[in-house]
Write a structure and sequence with these properties.
Radius of gyration: 23 Å
Number of strands: 10
Structural class: alpha/beta
Order of helices and strands: EHEHEHEHEHEHEHEEHEHHH
Low-confidence stretches: none
Number of helices: 11
Distance between the termini: 59 Å
Shape: elongated
Strand order of the largest sheet: 3-2-4-1-5
Strand content: 15-25%
Helix content: 40-55%
Largest sheet: 5 strands, parallel
Length: 266
């Protein structure tokens, strides 16, 4: 049997009784980082055999473990935080076990996504989770444009190192968009910074320490037609307005990213 176990996202006391029992009874515990998981096991007096299972050995380890699972071994799968296979390794093993007819059970628990969503104050009837945000200015600007008409909040993970640039990009695209930066959730130095994108970008101007989850509020309407907006930039340029000024004007009126409009108008 394969047991997929959710582990604490920070505070080691945030673990379910079912998960603790499964970790005690497992023949083998697969860990994203064995040293990290050992702290959880030691905190709850659990002596278990551990083995690494991470993005660099996932394929080989899956092939290695399938005979044991078919033979009836009880294997527990954990990641460093939260539920395996959600922006963490594990999906390959779960699929292989299911395809082989091995029993798979999922033990729910802490979630950085839902914890951040509630802490942000931006809860709605639904939400969108996108994993890690795109890297680079262009991909980010296109992503903000896609979110322009979103009626639900969006939750994403982001690297602390890239966070200031990401917030500046969002502020350039939609300065009034509500956003919450949730840092070190459930830990001693937990912090949630909420406000309009422009305000939050000014407050978070340096890379913070710790894990970061972003919650981006819903949009306020239908997205502007990019082709029409690009044509408007062209008409203003033909009328004598410098291209950069024309792009800035149309971007403010439509909410579309300035860089994308400028590139499209060339």
């Amino acid at each position: 049997m394969l047991a997929v176990c959710a582990t604490p996202i920070g505070n080691l006391e945030d673990v379910t009784l079912r998960v603790l029992r499964e970790l005690r009874e497992a023949d083998l515990v697969l860990c994203e980082d064995t040293r990290h998981t050992r702290r959880l096991l030691d905190a709850h007096g659990i002596r278990a055999r551990t083995r690494s299972y991470h993005e660099h050995n996932e394929a080989a380890r899956t092939a290695e473990l399938m005979p044991r699972l078919r033979a009836g071994d009880r294997v527990a799968l954990v990641s460093d935080a939260g539920l395996p296979a959600i922006s963490d390794p594990g999906g390959r093993l779960v699929r292989a076990a299911l395809d082989a007819g091995v029993e798979v059970t999922v033990l729910p628990g802490p979630s950085a996504v839902e914890t951040a969503l509630v802490a942000s104050g931006l809860v709605a009837d639904g939400y969108r989770f996108v994993g890690f945000l795109p890297r680079g200015r262009g991909p980010l600007e296109r992503f903000w444009a896609e979110l322009a008409d979103s009626a639900s909040p969006t939750v994403a993970f982001e690297s602390p190192r890239r966070l200031p640039a990401t917030l500046r990009s969002l502020a350039d695209s939609d300065p009034g968009r509500e956003v919450a930066v949730c840092r070190e959730l459930t830990k001693r130095h937990e912090q949630v910074v909420r406000g309009a994108a422009a305000e939050v970008a000014a407050l978070v101007s340096e890379p913070p320490k710790g894990e970061v989850t972003l919650v981006i509020g819903p949009g306020e309407g239908e997205p502007a037609d990019e082709a029409a907006a690009s044509a408007a930039v062209g008409e203003l340029v033909e009328a004598g307005l410098p291209r950069r000024q024309a792009t800035d004007l149309v971007a403010r009126l439509t909410g579309l990213p300035r860089r994308r409009l400028y590139d499209m108008s060339l």
